[in-house]
Amino acid sequence: MAKLIKYVRKGLAETPSSPILKFSDYASKIPDVVKFTLGEPDFNTPDHIKEAAKRSIDENHSHYAPSNGTMSLRRAASQFLSKKYDQNYDPETEVLVTTGVTESIFDAVLATLNSGDVMVVPTPIFPLYMTDENIINEGIEVVKVNTSDDGFKLTPAKLQKVIDQYGDRVRMLVMNYPTNPTGVMYSQDELDALADVIRDKPIFALCDEIYSELNYDQPHASMEKSLHDQVILMNGVSKSWAMTGYRIGIVCAPKDILQQIAKIHQAIATTEPTPMQDAAEEAFKNGMDDALPMKEEFQKRRDVLYAGLTKLGFECAKPQGAFYIFAKIPEGFDQDDNQFIYELVDKAHVAVSAGSSFSEGGQGYIRFSYAVAMDQIKEGLKRLEKFVKENKK
């Protein structure tokens, strides 16, 4: 039966598993490792949300919810987005509940793009959007735009250059802000300028705003404000309420577009677990400011880690949101980031992610996630200082 592997979906067997998760598993086998690898808040879910989940189970909310999500959750999410960011969507026709933003991305891409279409992806970026990481993009050409020379931000000029080159084949622009892996955030003026490039063209803007509550230095900005009718907006409860295990994402889009995305969702997931939806409803409805204490702590961690890395010779774009620092490997070390992370974890027991995992512009960089306790950050910096002194050429 092993011979049947050659008959699985074309290209799937050759598609590697996530190198980020592979390395994280490797690092986890080191007993005293300090892990700066996975982007998951180390806080507990707020108690009032946990109580909502328990209450949902006790009240026997154990049956199928409507495929698009419970109306009460969609209404709570819609009201949250409106109050927080002035993003206005009809909960009945323009909001869909998915299995995290991961499924949201899958559904939106599958619903809107055809073989031969071009999807523009500013890099470095989380590898889910890459063809070599995500088989749903088979037949779609992903054009990666290296932003490392522009402060890790896509510029209107570079976007226009891609459109000039590929013409009517360009069908989607991917935007993630605050950005994983760099923590960079766009201003509203910058997003407006990018929107102007694709305005009134048959181009969707897929806007992943899962880190919207974790902006440190400015209010959250959104391309939705400048290009509502072309935006497919994504958000959820994973990062802002430390609910990664609840797996609840939100997709918002104009009615006719959302109807098509919902068809993919019906085929993939049917609906989400009702108790998890009830918990997410509680987060959106009564946890309006739950992220503020976490954001304050993340900002303190950012400042300590940024200062420590800079002192050791790592060049970093100072993060304006999320909980990542993207650091250039200092001179005096081999710039092969994949080799560097294994040497670092083996010798110093400090685990980080390779920058090249995030595609073009990431080579020679490493990503630190500071979603770890402050004492771990300080211990990691101590070990890193010793490693730099002993191994720099």
TrEMBL record:
Residues 32-384 form the Aminotransferase class I/classII large domain. One of its GO terms (biological process) is amino acid metabolic process. Keywords: Aminotransferase, Pyridoxal phosphate, Transferase. GO terms for molecular function: pyridoxal phosphate binding; transaminase activity. InterPro entries: Aminotransferase_I/II_large, AspAT/PAT-like, NHTrfase_class1_PyrdxlP-BS, PyrdxlP-dep_Trfase, PyrdxlP-dep_Trfase_major, PyrdxlP-dep_Trfase_small. Its cofactor is pyridoxal 5'-phosphate. Coiled coil: none annotated. Its EC number is 2.6.1.-. PROSITE patterns: AA_TRANSFER_CLASS_1. PANTHER family: AMINOTRANSFERASE, ASPARTATE AMINOTRANSFERASE. Belongs to the class-I pyridoxal-phosphate-dependent aminotransferase family. This is Aminotransferase. It comes from Lactobacillus helsingborgensis. The lineage of its organism: Bacteria, Bacillati, Bacillota, Bacilli, Lactobacillales.
